[in-house]
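@channel sequence for tomorrow's demo:
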Amino acid sequence: MERWQDYLKKDSINWLLASNPWTRYRTLTDLLNRTETDSEVIEAKQELLDNNRIRDLIQTTAKWFPEKPKRHDDAKMSHYKLRMLADFGLTIEYKPIKDIVLKAKAHQDDILFAIRQDIPDKSKNNETPQAAWNALPCDSPLMTYILLALGDDGKDVMDTVDFFKDQWNKKEGWFCNLFFVRSQYKKLQVGCPMAGLMSLEIFSLFDEKNNLEYIENCYHPLKFHREYGKSLYYFGRSKRFWTLKYPYVWYNALYIGDVLSRFSLFKDEELLKDIIDWIINSQDSEGRFRPTSMFREYKEWGFANKKEPSPWITFLAYRILKRWHEHSTID
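structure tokens (generated this afternoon):
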């Protein structure tokens, strides 16, 4: 019987297990299907919590937007760091993470959890920012996903999930209505692909069959973008799109593959097949993956070293292949 490892030139699972605490922990749980009660998983989780780099990341994240970011895709923004901690496997069971979550939930824009950012506004011919704590379609779903992934499923979080269902109960989806993309939306009548991608992450945490309408509508902008073949609301499909890059700050193929591979619904979609082929063809002779782009903020981390194969990037690629294979082999 074919295994997902058959897509690899060589199986580097043992290399992942010997690399760093976050990769080891996630390899055990996500690739080897070990449970949280497994002795190796318990040991790996403790190593994760004791790691100095993780502790420094927690300490930095705990400052929670100490200053206003200069741009929306700034990798230093606090919610991207919190997302990393969730990706690595930390939860609100660990008090320092719970303390950060309380800070994160203290800022709301109506019902949604907000981040510190400027909202561009155009008055006459002048573009002026409105500085505040705001929630946009391309970041508020991420905040909800992070909180759920960290283990917070309280009423305030679940209320935002219901909000996103309301936004994606139609094929046109959700859109920010900012002035610099409004004309394209008026012409195309398709939702924001980044908002769709982030909302799909939320729905990946719930039963797929019970949320098919929302899942399909969230996916529509991504499918449209592939068929459109060019920039959509400033989200491109050039070299920057096809990049092995972490953390998931912006719209790229690795991020999309990570999300779409969670759903059986998309196993035969051409967009996901394109990404699977790209991943398979990107491995080296050892079945490992090297970052092709990096955020300088994380230059000391292994996933930001373009000269060497990255255990974490390799893990992410393996997990995508594993999920897709498992969905593809289920009748």
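heads up for whoever presents: Residues 109 and 168 are 19 Å apart (CA to CA).
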